[in-house]
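Hey, can you fold this one?
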Amino acid sequence: MNYIQDILNEYTQMRDNGAESKSALQALRPHIEKLNKKQREELAALIRTWENQNPAEKTKPRPHPVIKPLAAKPAADTPPPAPAAVAPQPENAITWVACPNCGKTNQSHEVFCYACGHLLDTRRGEQNTKHFADAGDTMDSGYFGDDSVLALRARGSSETYEVRPQKADHEIIVGRSSSGSAIAPDVDLKDRQAADLGVSRMHLALRYDADQKAVLASDLGSANGTFINGQRVLPKEVRALHHGDELRLGRLILIVSFRHPGEQI
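Sure. Predicted structure:
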């Protein structure tokens, strides 16, 4: 029960600080997957009870920006085609997804299967393998290939934390461990005086976007905020990291470095 309570405590803290339910559960996925079926059902019941007792304003998540190519201008003597008719979608239309464990259908906003308690996959299809660009290709500061390494270095220190989000089967969590909790982040900043500098236990999530070849960062409802080059990462916002960025968690500053195959260290 203690481990379940630790997960619940981290979940409710992130929710209280503004994180969406799915974002909080995605951050806790590695810990939830350690639970057996009965424990998952118990955790799901506790979370549903908490959510019912703490109703929040339901807002639609903002879609990620999409860059669309410019359409060629029609010839002067050719009238532009009429826009295709699009059937209106009901405002409250319900979509359903199948549980990968038992096959039962659940509403798409659910994070636990009502039938078996399995944690539903909210990031299906994001882990497709991509290959490193040819040596002759030009890489900008945001490029992060299949073999690249993300290094985070605390300012004023030579120690680095190296991770490969593209190889992980879950989001990489940056934060600090606590002696009172069994939950620990993937990148643990405890030894960098993180608690005194305002770093939350589950502060930041990092994931790999294979299509854009980029590392994406999102704040997990931290108490003291996340800043990239001095600009705050807003709730529900997803930002791409670049080589050389200054990443500030509370008052702890990390320098972001991307390392690529063949580079001299």
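The CA atoms of residues 19 and 236 lie 7 Å apart. Let me know if you want another pass with a different chain boundary.
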